[in-house]
Amino acid sequence: MKILRMIDALQRLGLDHHFEGEIEAVLNRQYDSAMTKYSSTIVVDDDSTASHDLVETSLRFRLLRQQGCRAPSDVFQNFINKDGKLQSKSEQDIMGLIELYEASYWATKEETTLVEAGELCAHLLDSARSSSTFADYTVRHPSHRSLPKCHIRNYLSNFHGGSTTKHYYEDTLADLARLEFNMNQSVCLQEVVHVSKWWKELGLAEELEFARNEPMKWCMWPLTTLIDSKFSEERVELAKPISFVYLVDDIFDVYGSLDELTLFTEIVDRWDVASADQLPDYMRKCFMALHHVTNEIGYKVYKRHGCNQIHSLRQAWAKLFKAFLVEAKWFKGGKSPSAEAYLKNGIVSSGVQVVLVHLFFLLGQGLTQRNEDLVNGDDPPVISSVAKILRLWDDLSSTDEEQDGEDGSYVNFYLMENPQCSIDEAKVHVMDMIEETWKQLNHEFLSITPFPLVFNRAAHNSAKMVPLMYGCGVDVDQTRRLPKLEDHIKSMLFESIPM
Question: What's one GO BP annotation on this UniProt entry (predicted)?
Fold first, then answer.
């Protein structure tokens, strides 16, 4: 149990990357034991055996799944009676309820018992939330839906949680976490400065005054997606295609005429630099800048990893432009697509695919022909699930981005097809869709996948980032407004943690 607690603390404090090999070895032993003995006893350490303890069982289950191991959810049958309710002893175990609640967010679509157990835990923890800040914070911010960087401060102030036992390593880890957070903060600030300088020198902000000019916001995606500071250079590079996703979105949504947008898409689809002069001046400058950045990233991928992926990067951009054009034809033409058609196209127009394709090649792991074919073809579920979560969250958002363009919303199209529904009912329906998509993402993470663990984790982190980016939303238990993105930027970049 002690080693599991330590691993959990390392991960929550963002220190786990220092001990990747050791953590993997421990969890592999735990997984081997779980697969052979989970119905009765499970080996915890070399010289001890676990009882059917809810805290320990739930924590082990969650840590194994976070490692990509498909730990069996049958272990929780020991705590559930014939009526599908938690045993009375378990209902009184606050820390056990908290850990089971945390574990339930790793459920896949078919694991309904685990989902229901999590819902029951949330209900039972309601009474404890007023007296336990740890219980309240956990219910609102389960670890599987939260980014460690955004919650390190709170975890440090609630290091013991509801436990009265202090472990020998806690003070050391807390000091190390504070030191690393403050050191990484300076690295992150340097990255923001670097990207801001690049964006200013690019000159598109002055050229396209109607477009969003938010380099700090664009940097937040890679900063929270790739947590380890060893990926600093990759984070800087990833911010560049992210900026172009926002820029091109504004061109299609706000400024371009349908004829201009059609020509723009055709030229990008052919990647026809020679025809760029046919475009309006602002589009030509945008395309030439995109051409330069794509070639630059492609060259860096080739130099580091020995493979030329410029064609794949261009193909990803062409796919995004085509999706933007479909929406432009709908909305500028006054047409209303079906909710299903809108969502299918909106998954592509979210921009997630083009960003994660760049991320995959920048990381340089798992660069097999099979994987290249997967990212170049129809989006694999690990990508499309993240894109769907973003699209639905974005459409739930009521944040005014101060744009004059027309835009669609899945909520609106769903209401058109279901006039008997209220807007609140439609939003509940969308939240249910988001939950189902998370289960699909869990399934992909736990399945045998050709993609490396570092990429799958980055994709998961991207999904976790979505509600923070669209801070108009509510947290997972639907009771409180999420902090605005600006609050997270301030906390992550400008407020050090006192030693």
Answer: hydrocarbon metabolic process
Neighbours of 21 (CB within 10 A): 8
C-alpha count within 13 angstroms, C-beta hemisphere, residue 229:
15
Residues 297 and 396 in one domain: yes
Q: Residue 49 belongs to what H/E stretch?
A: strand 48-49
pLDDT band at 463 (very low <50, low <70, confident <90, very high): very high
Range of the domain at 421: 175-494
Residues 247 and 374 both lie in one domain: yes
Judge if 21 and 59 occupy the same domain: yes
How close are the terminal C-alpha atoms of the chain, in Å?
Answer: 29
d(CA 395, CA 140): 22
Residue type, 427: K
**Same domain, yes or no, for 354 and 440?**
yes
Distance between CA atoms of 485 and 487, rounded to whole angstroms?
Answer: 5
Confirm whether pTM is higher than 0.70.
Answer: yes
The tokens for 401 are: 């981005």
Q: Report yes or no: 439 and 108 within 8 Å, Cβ to Cβ.
A: yes
Domain count, the chain: 2
